[in-house]
Specification:
four-stranded mixed beta sheet; alpha/beta; 23% strand; disordered N terminus; 5 helices; single chain; globular; 35% helix; 8 strands
């Protein structure tokens, strides 16, 4: 059975009902944007309010490097996480994951990495993935690649 770590989830999300609604709303907003409709700002807001499932590797959150940035990989539900795990986990081993608010990922985790980083959602879902790049309006300005403060972060090795 997988071990689940809960970080940054507010206590009024009891029984999973509110959590499921938030995940469904984010997946729907992603689908809208991929069809070319919907407000990009509303999509970012929904991501920030949503609880995302992030696979863990030991004590670390799973991430990947692509295009000069590190991407924290989050999933809107256990089905999307399982799809990813089938591609990246060893054998039939259950995957551990953390449940994190999107806002906590982009406001706290991303800046702590010391390199350009963003959030990739549902990357194993064909026609359902969305990338939230390390730019102003998504991550803090101090670590955004399109802001002056990002130069300092890029030069910092961890």
């Amino acid at each position: 059975m997988p071990r689940v770590l809960i970080y940054g989830v507010v206590s009024h999300l009891q029984g999973g009902g509110a959590v499921e609604q938030a995940r469904t709303a984010l997946a729907e907003r992603i689908a809208d944007r991929r069809r070319g409709v919907g407000d990009p700002r509303a999509l970012v807001g929904e991501m920030r309010r949503s609880v995302l499932l992030v696979p863990t590797a030991g004590e670390c959150l799973w991430s990947a490097r692509l295009g000069g940035a590190r991407w924290i990989c989050g999933f809107t539900d256990e089905t999307a996480l399982a799809r990813f795990s089938r591609l990246h986990a060893s054998g039939d081993q259950a995957a551990d994951y953390a449940a994190l608010l999107g806002a906590r990922i982009v406001d706290e985790v991303v800046p702590s990495l010391g390199e350009p980083a963003g959030l990739a959602v549902d990357i194993a879902t064909e026609d359902g993935s969305m990338f939230f790049p390390p730019v102003v309006g998504i991550v803090p300005e101090s670590v955004a690649v399109d802001a002056g403060g990002a130069e300092e972060v890029r030069g910092h090795e961890r």
